[in-house]
Amino acid sequence: MNTTDNSRQALMDATRGLVLTRSYGSVGIAGICERAGVRRGSLYHFFPGKEDLVIATLEALYTEFTAEVLEPALRGPGGLRERMAAFVGAIHAFQARMQAAEGRLPGCPFGSLAVETGTQSPRLREAMQGHLDAIRAQFRAALDAAVAHGELDARTDTARLADHWLALMEGILLMARAEQDADTILRLAPALQDLLLTTHPDGDAP
Amino acid sequence: MNTTDNSRQALMDATRGLVLTRSYGSVGIAGICERAGVRRGSLYHFFPGKEDLVIATLEALYTEFTAEVLEPALRGPGGLRERMAAFVGAIHAFQARMQAAEGRLPGCPFGSLAVETGTQSPRLREAMQGHLDAIRAQFRAALDAAVAHGELDARTDTARLADHWLALMEGILLMARAEQDADTILRLAPALQDLLLTTHPDGDAP
DNA sequence: CCTTGCGTTTACCGACTGGTCAACTAGACT
DNA sequence: AGTCTAGTTGACCAGTCGGTAAACGCAAGG
Fold first, then answer.
1. Å: B2 CA to C27 C1'
2. Which of A96, A170, B158, B205 is positioned for an S-S bond with B171, CB 3.0–4.6 A?
3. Between residues 83 and 112 of chain B, which touch chain A (CB distance below 8 Å)?
C-alpha cells in the first residue's frame, strides 16, 4: 500500500481522461490536478512538466491498447476477415465506452496528438509517431499471417498494405471524432474490408 | 483602393497561414495581429472574436480550394483514374507549397480543426463538418460521372464509396502531417486507387 | 532523540490569454 | 465649416497558463 505512486497514477489517469477527449493544448495542469485530487506542486515532484506527463500517459495507454485490444483481436481465432472484424469491434467498443464515460469520443489519441503537437512539441510528436509505427508493425504481422495461411496472395506487399491500413484507420477514427459518433466507425469499416481483402492490381495499369 | 477591407483581409491571410500549420488553440490573436500588421483592437471591429475570424478564414479557404483544386481536378480530362491522379497531384503540390512557405505541412485543415475543436467550439466544428460534407458530395459527383461513363459498375454505391474516399483522404493527410512529409501523400495515394478502382464484392461474403 | 529524505502543500511568479473601451483620425457628405 | 462614421489605436482588464520554491508532515533509520 505504498502511497508513493498513488498520486503519480492518479495524475496519469486524470490526464488520460482529459487529453483523449479534449486536446493537448486545451487541457491545463490545473484541470488535471483537480481531477486527480492532487495539488499542483505535487505534479512537478513526479514529472518534469506537462509534456512529460502526457508522454508517460500515452506510453501507458499504448501498452494497454496493445495488450488488451490489438493483440487479442489480431491474433484471435479465424482468418484475416474475422480478425479484422474483431479489431473493428474492439475499437468501436472502446470509443463508445469512452464517449459514455467522458461525454466525448476520443478518436485515435496517437494520431490526434501527433497532428496537434507536430508543430510545437517535437518530443511528443516523436513519441506518437513511435506508437503509430508500432501499431503499423502489428498490422503487418497480421497480414503476414494471412499470407502464410494462404488467405492473401503470396506476392502481397504486406508492408505497403499495413501502411494503407493504418492510414485508413486513422481516417475512420478522425471522421468518427469529427462527427462525435461511434457508429461512424461501423459505417466506414467496410472500406477496410475492401482495402485489405480484395485482390490488388500489380501497380498501374498500362 | 478602399482601405476598408485591407485589415480584414490581412487578418484572414495571417490567420490562414498560422492556423493551418499550427493549431486553433496554439494560435493567439496577438500572433495573428502582429503578422497582419494590425493592432489588436482592430480585429474586434471586423470580427466578433477569434472563433468567427477562424470560421470566416476557413470558409474562404474552402471556396478557394473548391475552385482551384477540387473542381479542376475532378472535372478535368481523362477518366476517373486520371482525375484522381490530378487530384492527388494538386493536393500534394498544395501541401508541399505550404510547407515551403510556412515551414509546416498543414494536412487537411477542415479535418484537423474538426478534430481539435470538436469538443470545445460547436460552431467551429459544425462549420468544418459542413465543408467536409461538401467535399464528400464533390467526390460523389466524380464517382457518378465515372459510373455514367461506364468506368465503374452501374451498381456501385457512389455515396458509400465517396464516404470511404473522404475517410481515406483524411487518413492520408493526417499521416502526412504527423510525419511532416509531403511525400507521404504520394506514398499512400495508391491506396486510393485500390479503394476506388477495384471491383468490390457486394456486401459480406457468405 | 534526531536526522534524513520523500511526498505534500501553498503562496507566488512572469508571461500570456481573449476581450473591452474610450479616445482619436481621416475621408465623405451636407 | 460642421457633422458623421468607418476605421484605428493603445491602455487596460480579469483570468489562466505552466512552472517555481520554500516550508511542512511524517515515517524510516541511525
1. 11
2. A170
3. 104, 107, 111-112
